[in-house]
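User: Second chain of the day. Same drill as before.
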Amino acid sequence: MTSPKPIKEQIREYLNRSGVQLPVFNPVALELNAALGNEDASPAKVEAMICKDPALAGQVLRMANSSAFAGLTQIVTVRQALMRLGMKQVARLAIAASQHSLYRSQDSIASDWLARLWRQAYASATGASWIAECTGRRHAAESAFLAGLLHDIGKLLILRAIEDLTAHGDAEKTQITPELLLEVLDSLHCEMGFELMQHWNLPEAYCLVGRDHHAERFDSTQELLVIVRLLDQVCAKLGIGGTPDPEMMPAASAEAQALGLSEVQIAELEIFLEDGAAFA
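Assistant: Same format as last time:
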């Protein structure tokens, strides 16, 4: 009787099969991201982009009416959301909403992991834009939001692959314990995320973030990469997406120094993320 292949090898083989349905990146998200970096962007253009995808528009309205943003009256149109929340906030909600549907599953175990992963993705996105604006990099705020949202997309891909392998009995000879799953996610997600972003034809800067956000050596001139690397440390310290690690010291990191963030600013970032965690 032959031994089962290591789960990492099973995942790679599964993803290389022809006909495998990879997660789809909503092109509206990239359009919105590009529009916000354009001085000619207008609320009307943002509204038109969102409304051409009715499902996305509905998700935006649900998020706009959540406890984090709700006002005295309910928002019933994207135009009302734009008037109350502003163009940039609505566009960011739409970008987030375009990805949120990928983090849902009918499997209870996968659903729990995906919920935690989504919480970290959203915290990283909002935190990344906060850092960009706080450090005088407003030109990069929208790109930072998308980079933070997508940087761990490789974990989503791996979870989906394991879920499908298990559902079809392909991984039945391998007991996927929580410890093994963590090992697989940690060791493979950067590689897989990089490949998925390339498959999506995303700009190189995002692909580099996906590949290098845990690399031992990194290019400190890549501002999106540095921002996301710092967010990973802050999220780890706070336990956003996992167990808190109070020994993490992001304020003393090379990333914080490269960005020029003080200890006080890091503390403000932590408060900002904790206040927004429930929304995700």
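Residues 7-18+25-276 form a domain with the Hypothetical protein af1432 fold (CATH 1.10.3210.10).

User: Great, on to the next one.
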